[in-house]
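Dear U.,

For the methods section draft, I wanted the exact inputs and outputs in one place so we can describe them consistently. I've listed the two proteins in the order they'll appear in the manuscript figures. Please don't edit the token lines directly; just add comments below if something needs changing.

First protein:
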Amino acid sequence: MLIIVDYDNIRLEQQRKGLEFIVDSILEALGPDRLAGELRVLLRLYGGWYEGTDETQRSQGLAAEIATAFPKAVVIARGEKLVKLIVTIELAYSLVVDPRNHLFHTFKRRGAPRGLHCRMPAEVDCNDPECPGAILYEFIQNGKCPKCGMKTQELLFRAEQKLVDTMMTADVIHLAGEREQDVCIVSSDADLWPAVLTALLCGRHVTQVHTRGNGTPDKYCDHAEKCYTQVFL
């Protein structure tokens, strides 16, 4: 069984508990019925793993955690029997259909968002002459540090993923169409619904593990009928 996991869609407090906690939570959400007949489970984690052609620090940290804790044997109950699942994890560096060729540039740093404003400390009744808010004011308003001249965009940036949603979409469609496999997706991102619908139209059963507490909107589920199951992390 292959499980497609939108890692950044998992809540931050769950990420902080580590991959073993996340795996146990996903398997618990799926339950023994959905895992019936399975002996091996592979989780593919999707995210911005490459900044340019270099692995991000986050990617390296997760890879080290995977190497330490997995493969992992997980015992689940199937009726009166206890069955051992072997769980492995991999980072989705490439498409399932083309595993040898990594997709680079999936993480990008953008400059500080425009329209930032800052008040002088005196405007909010701060009379401390050494208040760092005065430096912050000049830093934001003038676009550079008043002491060292460092530019705002050198310190402030936004992290942005590229290609990740389309990688997940491509893999879902490949698994459902070419490999004729049922699909399991861990994400609450509505942008993935076309991929879910394509898998359903291919005759596959889709299980979606929601990560954000809200289920799929009814306007989408109307097309899903009985081949679509949603559970919650």
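Second protein (the one for the lower panel):
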Amino acid sequence: MEIVTVKKKSKIPKYRQIIDSVENAIAKGILKKGDKIPSLNAIKNNHKVSRDTVLTAFNELKNRGIINAIVGKGYYVLSEDILVHKKVFLLFDELNSFKEDLYNAFLQHLDENIQVDIFFHHFNKKIFKKLIKDNIGNYNYYVIMPANLDKTEKILSNLPKDNVFILDQISKELEDYSAIYQNFKKDIFKGLTVASNKIEKYNKLVLLFSESKQPVGILNGFTAFCQQSNLKYEIIDALENRTPVNGELYLILNDKDLIRIIKKIKENQLVLAKEIGVISFNDTLLKEFVEGGITTISTDFKLMGKNLAKMILSEKSAQIENPSSLILRKSI
């Protein structure tokens, strides 16, 4: 039985007929996972169609994860799920509670026939490069969270620019890409300014900042606020050897460090919001209840996920700055 049929007088484009033929063969059980499909040259010669026509059909099936190519051997059935129409490569830096909110909102607002595969680079440039290199041509869309890795534009140049979406952080080198991003400098400066009447009772502001993982915009927004407000400030990269003292206000960016500073505050018998203050970055359900509530400066991750889904479904290029707000609680 011939798997591929192409009717010359049909109104259906020939590449579409090739796709339909492969899908029908899978649906009927003629082709199963691991089976080899007719070669590009065999389809071209048997049905008098161009090489580009067959390649267009194969590329769509490949992008949807239905077939894959093995160098020197041909094309094989990779998946029997023919209902998947499009595939999204989603590369996060790491998974945490607020990134999970983003991810769930993204899935919620996508069509059911779009498959999303999630990967993590953990701020490691070699992993970042390998994950992208290994998946070139395997997806319809690529959603990339580059974090603060340098020279990522060289790696991303291997992907079709119109199908790439930058998430969370965007550098000058990536300004030509569609993106949904945070303006970290503005968000921190604005949040601290809104809370300035609470902040002024403290003698010093302390920012816990990791240069390797956290956006430099946070550092710039923090220092700009302190300098404009004539406030003493300090920037540290770890809490291990730090003893919090009366009159300090800590800006904590990492959830684990938030628990560490609260533990140190208790160990030194300091009273939160009276003798010492804490502001955290990115809101979570936990921060509503810990110590009666932790003040946060946070972007809306659910909105980020929703807008990302809309952008992909509409296939329109855009750059959207995600809003942030100060959530004032009892910790300052």
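Candidate sentences for the figure legend, describing the second protein: The chain has three domains: 14-77, 86-183+301-322, 184-298. The radius of gyration is 26 Å.

Thanks,
Y.
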